[in-house]
């Protein structure tokens, strides 16, 4: 790797080294792994900077992830519109065509997660994330004019190519701005804000499909894709204008505000300086088994989320609701889900209960899925309550797992690999949802139900065992027997 650095990078490294020593000697970790990251700073100034970052970073990322989640999941809503008109037009009822179209998104989405992170620093968050949003919006728009199921499948694959950049890029960007004890809360704001607004997606899709059906010679499902595509293109253009870059490039902060941000990061985990992502580093980071464990936990949560996104209308129809109500009733559980998500994220940050919240929500997901499945055939009200529990549990898991995975590592290159690999496992969860919730098992979906229950039970037990390992390693570090993540002051959370 080249050792050449431009003058700006040299100045940034020198400044960051100064920040690491701000207020005297390097701040040492206390026994519970918490350091005083605000020493020497005015608390009012720190809060002002945090609010400033929150308002510039979280809302635009939330809207970008909103259109991402809507665009990958609205295939089910378009399918259900106008008495399954899309199925008839594209002959999706033959064989596994619908499952293939669903699956096509995830193959490039998974493959390109890690490579996509190289471009984030190269081109900057504005162009890389905002440009990708515009491009997948164009793919959505084009879906409104397809005439065959093969064309739909190809566009779904291209959708996966461009969406691969967003979630890992956003998670990496957030982790570079906030100390560890604020990550879960900010991840939850970013993620659950999008999920809450997505609750309107089912109602909006029903309204579009019903009111615009046959208008302009197009069916309702076509208008759903066209309008969603236009919304996504608009959000992408806004992102190119509004999104902020990494702290060392943040022009909206003053020098003093940037010093506060970088010093707090350096004191918290000693990795404020960017280390370039290389192929060798990627291979080294991927050898860490923790990345794969967090990926499996993420996969379990994603499996449930995708299953509900793609198949909830059919599950609700199996409870006895008609086509209209099956679409409308997908919304209330998403209105509920921000409540447990934000509360548990705050508890995870405040009390360092990261494993506790992950395990608890995995158990809640298991209980919810068991309730809405055919395990309680005649009790429609209880089954619908189970949809609430499952939705809240699996959606809370995503930011909790993402934040926990980012708090137990150091170095920005490893942070990028961790976020991309963990999120790629979310794509595997999407594939599992596509193939395990089989057309032949409508509306019971027995295979998918038991797979979802099994994987989330694994996440609950696995997270507890991983936490026991972390605590054991922390005790060894406290006794001076081991150095964690290359830093004697670092402790797992």
TrEMBL record:
Location of the Major facilitator superfamily (MFS) profile domain: 57-475
Residue ranges crossing the lipid bilayer per the database entry: 57-78, 98-115, 127-146, 158-178, 190-209, 221-244, 291-313, 325-345, 357-376, 382-404, 416-437, 449-470
InterPro entries the UniProt entry points to: MFS (IPR011701), MFS_dom (IPR020846), MFS_trans_sf (IPR036259)
Cellular component GO terms held in the UniProt record: membrane
A Pfam family hit: MFS_1
Domain of life: Eukaryota
Entry coiled-coil feature ranges: none
Membrane topology: Multi-pass membrane protein
Any GO MF annotation of the entry: transmembrane transporter activity
Location(s) in or outside the cell: Membrane
Entry keywords, A to Z: Membrane, Transmembrane, Transmembrane helix, Transport
Primary location group: membrane
Identification of the protein by name: Major facilitator superfamily (MFS) profile domain-containing protein
Naturally occurring in which organism (per UniProt): Cutaneotrichosporon spelunceum
């Amino acid at each position: 790797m080249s050792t050449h650095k431009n003058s700006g990078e040299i100045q940034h490294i020198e400044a960051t080294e100064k920040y690491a020593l701000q207020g005297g000697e390097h701040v040492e970790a206390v026994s519970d792994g918490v350091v005083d990251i605000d020493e020497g700073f005015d608390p009012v100034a720190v809060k002002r900077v945090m609010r400033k970052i929150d308002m510039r970073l979280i809302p635009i990322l939330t809207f970008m992830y909103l259109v991402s989640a809507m665009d990958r999941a609205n295939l089910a809503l378009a399918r259900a519109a106008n008495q399954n008109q899309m199925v008839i037009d594209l002959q999706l009822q033959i064989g596994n065509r619908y499952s293939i179209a669903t699956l096509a998104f995830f193959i490039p989405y998974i493959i390109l997660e890690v490579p996509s992170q190289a471009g984030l620093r190269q081109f900057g968050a504005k162009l890389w994330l905002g440009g990708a949003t515009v491009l997948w919006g164009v793919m959505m728009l084009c879906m409104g004019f397809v005439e065959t199921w093969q064309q739909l499948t190809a566009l779904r694959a291209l959708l996966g190519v461009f969406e691969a950049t967003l979630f890992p890029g956003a998670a990496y960007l957030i982790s570079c701005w906030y100390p560890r004890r604020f990550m879960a809360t900010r991840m939850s704001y970013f993620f659950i804000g999008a999920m809450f607004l997505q609750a309107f997606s089912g109602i909006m899709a029903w309204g579009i499909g019903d009111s615009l059906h046959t208008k302009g010679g197009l069916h309702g499902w076509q208008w759903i894709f066209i309008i969603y595509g236009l919304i996504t293109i608009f959000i992408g253009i806004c992102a190119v204008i509004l999104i902020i870059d990494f702290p060392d490039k943040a022009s909206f902060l003053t020098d003093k505000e940037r010093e506060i941000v970088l010093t707090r990061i350096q004191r918290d985990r000693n990795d404020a300086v960017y280390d370039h992502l290389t192929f060798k580093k990627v291979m080294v980071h991927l050898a860490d088994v923790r990345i794969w464990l967090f990926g499996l936990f993420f996969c379990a949560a994603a499996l449930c989320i995708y299953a509900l996104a793609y198949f909830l209308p059919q599950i609700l129809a199996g409870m006895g609701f008609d086509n209209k109500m099956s679409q409308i009733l997908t919304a209330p559980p998403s209105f509920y889900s921000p409540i447990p998500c934000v509360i548990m994220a705050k508890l995870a940050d405040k009390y360092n209960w990261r494993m506790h919240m992950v395990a608890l929500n995995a158990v809640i997901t298991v209980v919810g899925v068991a309730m809405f499945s055919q395990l309680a055939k005649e009790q429609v009200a209880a089954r619908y309550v189970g949809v609430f529990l499952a939705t809240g549990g699996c959606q809370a898991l995503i930011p909790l797992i993402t934040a926990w995975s980012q708090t137990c590592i150091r170095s920005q290159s490893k942070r990028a690999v961790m976020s991309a690999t963990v999120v790629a496992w979310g794509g595997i969860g999407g594939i599992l949802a596509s193939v395990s919730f089989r057309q032949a098992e409508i509306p019971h979906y027995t295979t998918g139900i038991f797979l979802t229950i099994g994987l989330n039970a694994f996440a609950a037990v696995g997270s507890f065992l991983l936490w026991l390992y972390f605590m054991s390693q922390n005790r060894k570090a406290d006794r001076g027997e081991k150095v964690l993540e290359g830093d004697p002051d670092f402790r797992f959370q």
